[in-house]
Amino acid sequence: MTGFALSPEHEDFRKVVHDFAEKEIGPHVAEWDKAHHFPVDVVQSMGELGLMGLTTPEEYGGAGADFTSLCVAIEEIGRVDQSLGITLEAAVGLGINPILTFGTDEQKQQWLPDLVSGQRLAGFGLTEPGAGSDAGATRTKAVRDGDEWVVDGSKQFITNSGSEMTSLVTVTARTGTREDGSAEISAIIVPNGTPGFIVEPAYDKLGWHISDTHPLTFTGCRVPAENLLGERGRGFAQFLAILDDGRVAIAALAVGLIQACLDECVRYANERQTMGGPIGRKQGVAFKIADLEVMLQASRLLTYKAAAMKDNGAPMKEFKQAAAVAKLYATESAVTATRIATQVFGGYGFMEEYPVARFYRDAKILEIGEGTSEVQRMLIARGLGLPVE
């Protein structure tokens, strides 16, 4: 990436993913969304295209591509459907990356091949009914019993955790108490199908109807001691270490949504006739669409600037700040963009037969997942040296 322009290679790759999304996803999205259907075959086709293993080194079956390439893929899939965009983002960021970054050689050899090929998925169980960003509130426990960990507790809002493709969920759990009285949080791999691990019925969500999301319950769930992922007591810190990448990836997902809103609005404003001409000639409509273009360009620049910083090895403090800025601006812009798009479509925008209705439903979660807008503002303020709590 030179400056803020994607390289020719990135643009060529964008076209490949764009064409795949238009052909394999676009024609079916409305039907899948209405049925809350998770299309296993299409997700596996995404794997066959190499999307799941984009940033995984070749030694584990991946492409060894840069982080920017992953953001391009997420943007293009998310432009056609946000649910499958988050499926890709979570498969890599929350499924593969923890094992790739913190796993032992044995764990990598055991789990990565199927995950990288896209034939299987993995989830990451952090959030609980009373705990998310507050690690100290974690109630799920894992007690060492000989050569096993015994896990008890519950998790909620876990993506890619209950599909027929899911092979494991990495969960954070209390494994002890530190000298200062704080909770010792560790990460443990729990394979799907383990006795005592129950995947509860899928959520009935406002949006992301195609995405696989479940609450999870663990009751006397026993896994081998070697399923500890990374260093004992570093589970929450490990999650935070991969979260910055996830924020940029969510920003890319938001960019895809803004692009979709812009595309639909330009098309509709040229086609919809009223008072003797297209509605696009009315400044009230045209100016709204112009605002979409401004939000798109700004969000895209912030997102790919942050991705380039990741690829170029920028200092972590600077990257964290750029990731928070990109995530905050792009996701809030996406929510605004869907509101504008619905307004441009008028009454039709309120009807499910038009894609902007789905865009509107899918957008809100972008301001919440992988760090709320409030959390991003807190991180940005801290990065500026403010003593914000």
Automatic annotation (TrEMBL):
Keywords: FAD, Flavoprotein, Oxidoreductase
GO molecular function, one term: acyl-CoA dehydrogenase activity
Domain Acyl-CoA dehydrogenase/oxidase N-terminal: start-end pairs: 7-119
Statement: the UniProt record of this protein carries the keyword Signal: no
Cofactor(s) of this protein: FAD
Keyword Flavoprotein attached: yes
Domain of life of the source: Bacteria
Cross-referenced Pfam families: Acyl-CoA_dh_1, Acyl-CoA_dh_M, Acyl-CoA_dh_N
PROSITE patterns (UniProt xref): ACYL_COA_DH_1 (PS00072), ACYL_COA_DH_2 (PS00073)
InterPro entries on file: Acyl-CoA_DH_CS, Acyl-CoA_Oxase/DH_mid-dom, Acyl-CoA_Oxase/DH_mid-dom_sf, AcylCo_DH-like_C, AcylCo_DH/oxidase_C, AcylCoA_DH/ox_N, AcylCoA_DH/ox_N_sf, AcylCoA_DH/oxidase_NM_dom_sf
SUPFAM superfamilies recorded: Acyl-CoA dehydrogenase C-terminal domain-like, Acyl-CoA dehydrogenase NM domain-like
Domain (Acyl-CoA dehydrogenase/oxidase C-terminal) ranges: 233-384
Domain (Acyl-CoA oxidase/dehydrogenase middle): residue spans on this chain: 124-220
PANTHER family from the UniProt entry: ACYL-COA DEHYDROGENASE, ISOVALERYL-COA DEHYDROGENASE, MITOCHONDRIAL-RELATED
UniProt similarity note: Belongs to the acyl-CoA dehydrogenase family.
Protein's UniProt name: Acyl-CoA dehydrogenase
Source organism per UniProt: Nocardioides immobilis
